[in-house]
Sequence to fold (152 residues):
Amino acid sequence: MTTRLTPEGYEKLKNELDDLIENSRPEVAKKLKEASEGKDFEDNPELETVRMEQAFVEGRIQELSTLLASAEILKDTHTFDKAELGAFVKLKFEDNTAEEYRLVNPAEANPMEGKVSVQSPIGKAISGKTCGDRVTVHAPDGSFEVEIISIE
Fold:
């Protein structure tokens, strides 16, 4: 299965993978060695904690490796006539405030950076829509309307 990512999203995930392999994995291995030296393996909460950390790091390495191996990087030169993955979409909310978001793959979503997943409530509501369209967003906190002001 191909995963479509923005160039920035690909780079961010690649950097995370590199950091996990180059820094986190050796750090956990060192902790594992220290926690197991001269201690009982059956009653060692420190060792269990480090093993859980190791499982998380190895799982994340595997997840990112698989994701990046099948990644398709979106071209920044693409022009958008509708809201879709990779597009910058400016929305006007019911209180007349406006915000701009980039529609991204869930793996690179970060609402604090203006990157909204196409699978989020806003992403689902505006996907496939064009400028001027008004849509209802069904969010966990309730429904609200937005108007698409621009798509780039």
Q: What stands out?
A: The CA atoms of residues 8 and 108 lie 9 Å apart. The beta strands are 3-5, 71-73, 88-93, 98-104, 115-117, 134-139, 142-151. The longest strand covers residues 142-151. Helices lie at 7-36, 45-69, 121-126.
